[in-house]
Amino acid sequence: MPFKVGFIVGKDTDIVEDPKFTDMGGDVSFLADMPDDLRVDPVTREYLKDCEPGTKGYAHCDVAIAWWIKKNCPDIEVDIICGPGDITLKRLQSNDFNFTLGFNAVN
């Protein structure tokens, strides 16, 4: 039975698809099937789920880490929690572990 792990995300900086990383050989191909609603608009710094349809977004490092684990660790069920609007005691307690990667109380 897999562990259920929550990743509390919310960074609006550190785009992993930035050419300064990919030009050095960073492989972001694992992000190709990541849902757009987990990407962030670089202008408004909002998740695309909260933006106008058609807005172009990018994956930030916190979501990319959780997505990589989801794709490469079959013994871990990943729950990506997008900031304060998605955090509930019930949701946190439904996970075996929770990690805060990109969101904090002063963000």
List keywords for this structure.
107 residues; alpha/beta; three-stranded parallel beta sheet; 3 helices
Describe the protein.
A three-stranded parallel beta sheet has the order 2-1-3, with helices on one face. The protein has helices at residues 19-22, 61-72, 89-93; strands at residues 3-9, 76-82, 97-100. The mean pLDDT is 89. The protein is of the alpha/beta class and 107 residues long. The chain starts with a strand and ends in a 7-residue tail after the last strand. It has three helices and three strands; from the N terminus they run E-H-H-E-H-E.
Average pLDDT level: 89
How many strands, which pairing sense, and closed or not: the largest β-sheet? 3 strands, parallel
Percent of residues in helices comes to 10-25%
Strand content: 15-25%
Low-confidence stretches: none
- Rg: 14 Å
Number of helices: 3
What's the helix-strand series?
A: EHHEHE
Output the strand order for the largest sheet: 2-1-3
Ends distance: 35 Å
Number of E-type strands? 3
Helix-and-strand structural type: alpha/beta
Q: What shape does the CA trace take?
A: globular
Strand-helix topology:
Blueprint: E1 3-9, H1 19-22, H2 61-72, E2 76-82, H3 89-93, E3 97-100
Parallel strand pairs: 1-2, 1-3
Give a nutshell description of this structure.
The chain is of the alpha/beta class. Helices cover 20% and strands 17% of the residues.
